[in-house]
Design brief:
68 residues, mainly alpha, DUF4351 domain-containing protein
């Protein structure tokens, strides 16, 4: 993978992280803590995909488990 491809992938992942935070903030409001948002910002791609794939069904407890 070239440097350009790595940068594109990182940019895409960053966008997905921000999308997840926005959607989850709308869904859970104050239950989505600053600490949880920070964990999402640092989460690996696999976890972000897991969250996004289940964004409409995930509970706050399931989200906490994913972010452990």
């Amino acid at each position: 993978m070239t440097i350009a491809e790595k940068l594109r992938n990182e940019g895409k992942l960053e966008g997905e992280r921000e999308f997840a935070i926005r959607m989850l903030s709308g869904r859970f409001g104050r239950q989505l803590t600053t600490e949880m948002k920070e964990k999402i910002k640092e989460a690996e791609e696999r976890r972000i995909n897991q969250i996004i794939d289940n964004i409409f069904e995930i509970t706050i407890e399931e989200l906490k488990e994913i972010l452990k």
